[in-house]
């Protein structure tokens, strides 16, 4: 049985929907930002908190867990700057509780949701896993801290783990059952689509004078089902191969500018966006694009869905829940 912590959230619920096809799954989530209805009905759902050893022990006592996938975290960059305690407490201290209980129950396979924010402002065009990690906010720091803890635990306690550093997750399941439901929503594609559905008056583009071909920031978008499949490949590598501990980037390998994303949303929806150009936000690098070559070579995984497919799936989802 696989324990998915944070499996009621956006990315976790998409992973669970894929994973139940081949494994027994139990989800632990406190529903602080997630939704119980997003959890696939084939999975067992337990409402509980990662930072509460009693909740964790109840799960490990009652179910034969052989691996843990850990999606549960706070992930609003701005909030992490104004309230770092909240981020270090949930993303680092609570994760330590989970690792401690795992070791107590001799569960040694772990998959961790990390982020492009661990790289900070990159000094290279295409980021690979050996690129410098220098986070510029407490959110990115909290994820890098856990990565460092995992390396020490692997050396000391024989923990096997895969760190997956996601770039921008986007899109919705092909089933039509789940999609992106963050509140507040801070991600570009859902914000544009909500605007095109009349739920927001306009879209702010933060800076059009960056050193990029059209002046807007370039980011790497990856379909959430592609992300889910990467987790399943990583899980296979942990369970079926000896010591596959590794850190991988997960991106599409292709960057798109904010303007290109807006243009593609207009194309997919047949609607016109009302855009205003706002000031740059501090800490926004001009370009964040991943090389996912390492996981392609090691596990044979690559992103299958391009930007148009990502937006098309998200558009169907947003229309269905408006
Ligand atoms: N969305 C992205 O583009 C993106 C990019 C990079 C990394 N990530 C990481 O991926 C993971 C999932 O992101 P998401 O967008 O699905 O976020 P989300 O907020 O939708 O999901 C997080 C889930 O964890 C749960 N949770 C949080 N704290 C908990 C706790 N203490 N105990 C139990 N459950 C708890 C929430 O209720 C929620 O269901 C996060 O770790 C995030 O940092 C996301």
Outline the fold blueprint.
Layout: E1 2-5, H1 10-19, E2 25-29, E3 44-47, H2 53-62, E4 67-70, H3 77-82, H4 84-104, E5 109-115, H5 138-157, E6 160-166, E7 168-170, H6 188-196, E8 203-206, E9 218-223, H7 224-240, E10 246-250, E11 255-257, H8 258-269, E12 275-278, E13 287-288, H9 293-299, H10 307-321
Parallel strand pairs: 1-2, 1-4, 2-3, 4-5, 5-6, 6-10, 7-9, 8-12, 9-13
Antiparallel strand pairs: 9-11
Domain NAD-dependent epimerase/dehydratase: 2-251
Cofactor: NAD(+)
InterPro entries: Epimerase_deHydtase (IPR001509), NAD(P)-bd_dom_sf (IPR036291), UDP_G4E (IPR005886)
Question: Keywords for this structure?
Answer:
about 325 residues, 7-stranded parallel beta sheet, 4-stranded mixed beta sheet, 13 strands, globular, binds nicotinamide-adenine-dinucleotide
Account of the protein in words:
The chain has 322 residues and is an alpha/beta fold. It is 39% helix and 18% strand. The protein is built from ten helices and 13 strands. The protein has helices spanning 10-19, 53-62, 77-82, 84-104, 138-157, 188-196, 224-240, 258-269, 293-299, 307-321; strands at 2-5, 25-29, 44-47, 67-70, 109-115, 160-166, 168-170, 203-206, 218-223, 246-250, 255-257, 275-278, 287-288. The strands form three sheets. The chain has a seven-stranded parallel beta sheet with strand order 3-2-1-4-5-6-10, with helices on both faces. Strands 7, 9, 11 and 13 form a four-stranded mixed beta sheet that branches. β1 (2-5), α1 (10-19) and β2 (25-29) form a beta-alpha-beta unit. α1 packs across α7 (224-240). Bound molecules: nicotinamide-adenine-dinucleotide. Residues 6, 8-12, 29-34, 49-51, 71-73, 75, 90, 94, 113, 115, 166, 168-169, 182 line the site of nicotinamide-adenine-dinucleotide. Nicotinamide-adenine-dinucleotide binds at residues 6, 8-12, 29-34, 49-51, 71-73, 75, 90, 94, 113, 115, 166, 168-169, 182.
């Amino acid at each position: 049985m696989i324990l998915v912590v944070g499996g009621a959230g956006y990315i976790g619920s998409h992973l669970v929907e894929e994973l139940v096809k081949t494994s027994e799954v139990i989800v632990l989530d406190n529903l602080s930002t997630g939704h119980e209805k997003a959890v696939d009905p084939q999975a067992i759902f337990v409402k509980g908190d990662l930072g509460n050893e009693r909740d964790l022990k109840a799960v490990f006592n009652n179910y034969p867990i052989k691996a843990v996938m850990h999606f549960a975290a706070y992930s609003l960059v701005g909030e992490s700057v104004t309230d770092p305690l909240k981020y270090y407490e949930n993303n680092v201290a609570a994760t330590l509780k989970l690792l401690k209980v795992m070791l107590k129950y001799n569960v040694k396979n772990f998959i961790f949701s990390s982020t492009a924010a661990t790289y900070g402002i990159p000094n290279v065009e295409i980021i690979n896993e050996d690129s410098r990690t220098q986070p510029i906010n407490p959110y990115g720091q909290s994820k890098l801290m856990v990565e460092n803890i995992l390396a020490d635990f692997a050396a000391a306690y024989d923990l096997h783990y895969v760190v997956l550093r996601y770039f921008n997750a986007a899109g919705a399941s092909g089933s039509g059952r789940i999609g992106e439901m963050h509140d507040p929503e801070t991600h570009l594609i859902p914000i544009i689509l909500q605007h095109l559905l009349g739920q927001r008056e306009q879209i702010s583009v933060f800076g059009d004078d960056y050193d990029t071909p059209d002046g807007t920031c370039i980011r790497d978008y990856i379909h959430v089902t592609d992300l889910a499949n990467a987790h399943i490949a990583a899980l296979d590598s942990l369970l079926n191969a000896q010591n596959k501990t590794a850190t991988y980037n997960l991106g599409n390998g292709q960057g798109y500018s904010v303007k290109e994303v807006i243009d593609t949303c207009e194309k997919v929806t047949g609607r016109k966006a009302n855009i205003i150009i706002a000031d740059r936000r501090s800490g926004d690098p001009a370009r964040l694009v991943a090389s996912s070559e390492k996981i392609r070579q090691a596990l044979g995984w690559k992103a299958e869905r391009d930007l148009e497919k990502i937006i098309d799936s998200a558009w169907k989802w947003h229309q269905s829940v408006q």
